[in-house]
Specification:
This protein has 187 residues and is of the alpha+beta class. The protein has a domain of 124 residues: Methylamine Dehydrogenase, Chain H (7 Propeller), CATH 2.130.10. Helices cover 20% and strands 27% of the residues. The strands form four sheets. The chain has a four-stranded antiparallel β-sheet, with no helix packed on it. Strands 8-9-10 form a three-stranded antiparallel β-sheet, with no helix packed on it. It is found in: Nucleus, Nucleolus. Belongs to the WD repeat DCAF13/WDSOF1 family.
């Protein structure tokens, strides 16, 4: 079509969109505000789910062929990530893809490398993989960035509470997070 059927205008830039292969009416958008938003194409006025836990802008996104999770291993209906793949020299990831059999995740990062990472379910019986599953150690830069992001979100929340407490009743209306990032929907 030469013109869009419906359009959602958001506060931040959307870097990538991936359609769920098993539920063709659902898609997930990767945004500059460190979150991913899942939408139902029939109801675009609010996000179905906000996926958090990223520490910088989300550059790319891809669903597994089963449609049950997407890269940085989020469940399609869960707000927080289940897994994170990283190495010592890995820098900012620009592109990610699942293999067709959902066994591998391929990522391209700022250090000009492509990485092929095996999904841990395939090798969960090995003692080394069991140890990794028990101990979730993040690299220091990711850990520090996550703490900084958490501090910023907490400060924003406290500021909103103070503004609400020192204003006239009903003058400040808070929107849910799922609606907050959407400016308007145009049909």
């Amino acid at each position: 079509m030469s013109s869009p059927a419906r359009k959602v205008i958001m506060r931040t830039k959307t870097n990538s969109i991936a359609w769920n292969p098993m539920e063709p009416m659902n898609f997930t958008a990767a945004n500059e505000d460190c979150n991913c938003y899942s939408y139902d194409a029939r109801k675009l006025e609010e996000a179905k789910c906000v996926h958090k836990d990223h520490v910088s802008a989300v550059m790319d996104i891809d669903f597994s062929p089963t449609g049950r999770e997407f890269v940085r291993i989020f469940q399609y209906n869960g707000g927080h990530s289940r897994e994170i793949y990283h190495t010592k020299r890995m820098q900012r990831v620009f592109c990610v893809k699942y293999s067709c059999d959902a066994s591998y995740v391929i990522s391209g990062s700022d250090d000009t490398n492509l990485r092929l990472e095996a999904v841990k379910n395939r090798y969960k019986h090995l003692p080394e993989v069991k140890r990794i599953a028990r101990h979730r150690h993040l690299p220091r830069p990711v850990y520090k960035a996550a703490n900084l992001r958490r501090t910023m979100i907490e400060a924003e929340r406290r500021k909103e509470q103070r503004r609400k407490a020192h204003s006239a009743l009903g003058s400040i209306v808070t929107e849910p997070v799922r609606k907050r990032r959407i400016i308007k929907e145009v049909e």
